Every structure is written in structure tokens, then in C-alpha cells.
């Protein structure tokens, strides 16, 4: 039973926040739908928030105001609006909001993704870029996958491509981050894919504690309990990795980013605190960022190719001309695969793996396009909506890689029609490495094999339903039958 003091406290907090919200409304906020008391617009958002916000923004405009509980949100849904928030006023919106799930899953937001903008965050980004993300640590794991698929093709059996690609990206990510392969059992009996996807979903669920701070301690949805249990799994795994590095470090060998960070904790040369918690937060950040986004991107590309046999044929024809059929694709071939590059861009346009990016946070009051953006507002850049903006794209719902033929539009954050990696200070630092890995995996699988859907399924029947999280995945695993096609 709730105490009378708690009830009075709740009433006072609600009254104060309602007053503050009312005073904000006197300024010209962006347009938005009519909300309801207390909830604001939470009731308008369903299983796929990026789709719901796209639908609502079509009525209210590319800079839209919505209120989730007591927290103001700005939804950005056009290239022109995105440029203002991510370039013109980049520094104002370089923050990350407080986030209950991230608090537990990133050691109180000590990672790069959710870290507070400031000296520590800038140092961490530079460290990750120099020590890991610019390093050519792409291993040859894809060769093992090709060999396994070759045997599957001889037996004419269906392959769970979602599971196989996930296993491949897990191994590659562990090698890139930890310089060592880890088995699924090393993190949890459920394995890397299940555990990390659960983290992505929990971090994306609308937690009442984020929108009604005084309700956070009650954990009415049970989310905090689940997140704490998951954080224990990650903490145990990261401690194991660190212990392995401490032990192996005494024996010499190649140093990686974990060794570098451990040496920083001992040097005490930074202007801010840097301890074991920071090491674990950055380690996990790098693992999740390199694994889950890569696997999901490859899945969506292969799904579109299976759904569009004409496009699949053109990609294979280009591979035959550039590479031939007597050897496998190598990283050095990628720059010559122009049509494959178009396919990757078109897939990112229709299936951005982080359709709302990570939320930005206004560090001060700002005026954008004549609208007042209040301090501490959370900014959603809806790349799903931007990719379907009819003023930016012809036939936006159609999968058509040829739209990029002769186009200068790139996906590295300079052209705001296409923002799969974000832009500005908070743009993804692992973009270049991620693109290489994605293109190489797709090129290998399409070059080495012909693919068909199982059970005589027609391409038009392939289910493309999304499952929302910080990273949007296929709701159903992608199943296909491979046939080996190289002459070796």
C-alpha cells in the first residue's frame, strides 16, 4: 500500500512538471498531434515506433513535437530538417539523454553510444577510431562459412541465413575487438545473438521510468529487473575477457584495444576518471555495434536480393565480370563493384538498421526553422521516414538500386537524404569498417552461390516484417537454399 507521503510527493511532482510544461508551451513549439493528460502521446506509439512516427509526421510536418509523459521529443523526418539538427546546430544536439536501460547496460552510460558529450566522450571516440575502427582486422572467417554452405548446397538443404550470418559476425567482431574467438557459451547458454538482441529490445522499449522519473523506482513494467539480470551477464563476460587479457599480456603478443584501455587505467594520465567500468562499457559497445548492426544489414540486403531476382542477377553478373568464377571475392575487389554499392545504398534507404538513430539531447534552448526546441528535449531523427520522403526520392516505396546510377548521394553522413550511420559529432565512428565487412560478406555469398527460397516460395511471398529494437531486425529468420556456382 502506498504511503500518504508518497502520494503527496507524486501530486506535487506532477503539478510542478505540468506547470513547467505549460510555461514552455508559451513559446512556438513545432506542430504536433493533440495529446492526452499525463501520457502525452505515448498511446499513439505501437510495436514499430519509427513507422508510427512517420505516419503522424506526414500530417504534422518534418519537425514535429510529441510529448512522452513529461519528456518533450522532437521528431525529424526530412533531409532538410535533419541537416539543421545534425549539422547547423550539431553541437547543441550532441548530447545523449539519461536512459534507464543504458544506465545498467553501459555502466552508467560510460560507453561511446550513450556517453555524455564532453572531454571523456571525445577522448573515447578518438581512442576507438585510432585503436580499432581504422584497423584492417577483417579476418577470413567468411571462407569457413562459404565452405559450410557449399556442403549444404550439395545436399540441397535449406539454410538459416540469419543464424549463420549472426555466427559469422560474432566471430569477426570478437576477433576485431578482443583479438580472440569466443564461443556462444562464453557469454551465456543462450548465445551472443539472443543476448545482444534482448539488450537491443530492452533498450528500445518505452520505459515509464524514462518518461515519469518518479515511477522509475517502482519498476511497474519489470524492465529494470530484466535489464539488471542482463547487465550481470555482460559484466561476467567482460570480466572474463579482461582477465584473459591480463593473463595473456604477461606473455607478450599483439596488443589490442582492451590492452590499450587497461594500460590507460594504470597510467592515470587522463584529465578524467578512467577505470575498469569504462573499459567494460567501451568493450561491450564495440562488440554490440560491430556485431548486431552488421548481421541485420546483411540480412536485409540478402532479403531484398531474394525478393528481387532481377537485381540478384545483375549483382552476380557484375561479380562475374570483375572477379570471374575461378576465385573468391577479395576486399580489394570491392571498389570496382559499383552496382553492389547501389544495392547496399538502396537497402539502407528502405531498411535503416537504426531507423531512429540513437536519441540526441538538446544541451540548451535553441531555435530551429522558427521553432523553439527546449533544453533537454530528446531528438529522434527518423531515417526510415527520410528514406521514404517523396520530395527526396522518386517512387520511394520501390526497391530500385538504379536510382543511384550517376548520383552523388553517399551514405557517409554528408548527404542528408541517406543517413544510416547518422552524421556530425554523433555519427557512427565504425562506418567505414562496417561498410567493408557488409559488402564483403554479401559479395561472397552472392558470388559463390545461387539462392532460392524454400518450398517453392515465390519471391513476392517473402515476409519482410520488421521487429523493432535499437537495431531493427527481420521478424522471421531468412531461410534459403544455396547452390555452389564457382569453378573451383
Please give a structural write-up.
It is found in: Membrane. It is a single-pass membrane protein. GO terms for molecular function: heme binding; iron ion binding; monooxygenase activity; oxidoreductase activity, acting on paired donors, with incorporation or reduction of molecular oxygen. The protein is an alpha+beta fold and 488 residues long. It has a single domain, classed as Cytochrome P450 (Cytochrome p450). The protein is globular and about 70 Å long. The strands form 4 sheets. Strands 1-2-7-4 form a 4-stranded mixed β-sheet.
As for the number of domains, it is 1
CATH superfamily: Cytochrome P450
Amino- and carboxy-terminal Cα gap: 73 Å
Q: Give the oligomer, counting copies of the same chain as homo and different chains as hetero.
A: single chain
Query: Could you describe the largest sheet, including whether it forms a barrel?
Result: 4 strands, mixed
Following the backbone from N to C, one meets helices and strands in this order, namely HHEEHHHHEHHHHHHHHEEEEHHEEEE
Number of strands: 11
Tally of helical runs: 16
Rg over CA atoms: 23 Å
CATH topology: the name is Cytochrome p450
Coarse structural class: alpha+beta
Catalogue the unreliable spans.
none
CATH class: Mainly Alpha
Family: Belongs to the cytochrome P450 family.
Membrane topology: Single-pass membrane protein
Cofactor: heme
GO molecular function: heme binding; iron ion binding; monooxygenase activity; oxidoreductase activity, acting on paired donors, with incorporation or reduction of molecular oxygen
Amino acid at each position: 500500500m502506498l504511503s500518504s507521503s508518497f502520494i503527496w510527493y507524486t501530486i506535487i511532482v506532477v503539478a510542478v512538471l505540468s506547470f513547467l510544461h505549460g510555461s514552455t508551451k508559451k513559446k512556438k513549439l513545432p506542430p504536433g498531434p493533440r495529446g492526452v493528460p499525463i501520457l502525452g502521446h505515448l498511446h499513439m506509439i505501437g510495436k514499430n515506433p519509427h513507422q508510427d512516427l512517420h505516419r503522424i509526421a506526414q500530417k504534422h510536418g518534418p519537425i514535429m513535437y510529441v510529448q512522452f509523459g513529461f519528456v518533450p521529443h522532437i521528431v525529424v523526418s526530412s533531409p532538410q530538417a535533419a541537416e539543421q539538427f545534425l549539422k547547423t546546430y550539431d553541437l547543441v544536439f550532441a548530447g545523449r539523454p539519461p536512459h534507464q536501460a543504458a544506465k545498467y547496460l553501459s555502466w552508467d552510460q560510460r560507453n561511446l553510444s550513450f556517453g555524455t558529450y564532453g572531454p571523456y566522450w571525445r577522448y573515447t571516440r578518438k581512442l576507438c577510431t585510432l585503436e580499432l575502427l581504422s584497423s584492417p582486422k577483417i579476418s577470413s572467417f567468411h571462407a569457413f562459412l562459404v565452405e559450410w554452405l557449399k556442403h549444404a548446397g550439395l545436399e540441397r538443404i535449406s539454410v538459416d541465413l540469419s543464424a549463420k550470418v549472426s555466427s559469422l559476425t560474432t566471430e569477426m567482431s570478437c576477433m576485431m575487438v578482443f583479438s580472440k574467438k569466443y564461443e556462444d557459451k562464453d557469454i551465456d547458454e543462450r548465445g551472443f545473438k539472443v543476448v545482444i538482441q534482448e539488450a537491443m529490445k530492452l533498450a528500445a522499449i518505452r520505459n515509464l521510468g524514462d518518461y515519469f522519473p518518479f515511477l522509475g523506482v517502482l519498476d511497474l513494467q519489470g524492465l529494470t529487473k530484466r535489464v539488471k539480470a542482463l547487465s550481470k551477464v555482460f559484466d561476467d563476460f567482460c570480466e572474463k575477457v579482461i582477465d584473459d587479457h591480463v593473463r595473456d599480456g604477461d606473455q607478450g603478443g599483439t596488443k589490442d584495444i582492451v590492452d590499450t584501455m587497461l594500460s590507460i587505467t594504470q597510467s592515470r594520465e587522463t584529465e578524467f576518471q578512467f577505470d575498469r567500468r569504462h573499459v567494460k562499457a567501451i568493450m561491450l559497445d564495440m562488440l554490440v555495434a560491430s556485431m548486431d548492426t552488421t548481421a541485420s544489414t546483411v540480412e536485409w540486403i540478402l532479403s531484398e536480393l531474394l525478393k528481387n531476382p532481377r537485381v540478384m542477377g545483375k549483382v552476380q553478373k557484375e561479380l562475374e565480370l570483375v572477379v570471374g568464377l575461378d576465385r573468391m571475392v577479395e576486399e580489394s575487389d570491392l571498389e570496382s563493384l559499383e552496382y553492389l554499392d547501389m544495392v547496399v545504398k538502396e537497402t539502407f534507404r528502405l531498411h535503416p538498421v537504426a531507423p531512429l538513430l540513437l536519441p540526441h539531447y538538446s544541451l540548451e534552448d535553441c531555435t530551429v526553422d522558427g521553432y523553439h526546441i527546449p533544453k533537454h528535449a530528446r531528438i529522434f531523427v527518423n531515417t526510415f521516414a527520410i528514406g521514404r520522403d517523396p520530395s527526396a526520392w522518386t517512387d520511394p516505396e520501390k526497391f530500385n538500386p538504379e536510382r543511384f546510377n550517376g548520383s552523388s548521394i553517399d551514405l557517409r553522413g554528408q548527404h542528408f537524404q541517406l543517413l544510416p550511420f547518422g552524421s556530425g559529432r554523433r555519427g557512427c565512428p565504425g562506418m567505414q569498417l562496417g561498410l567493408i565487412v557488409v559488402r564483403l560478406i554479401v559479395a561472397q555469398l552472392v558470388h559463390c552461390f545461387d539462392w532460392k527460397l524454400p518450398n517453392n516460395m515465390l519471391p513476392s511471398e517473402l515476409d519482410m516484417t520488421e521487429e523493432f529494437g535499437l537495431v531493427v531486425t527481420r521478424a522471421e529468420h531468412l531461410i534459403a537454399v544455396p547452390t555452389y556456382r564457382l569453378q573451383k
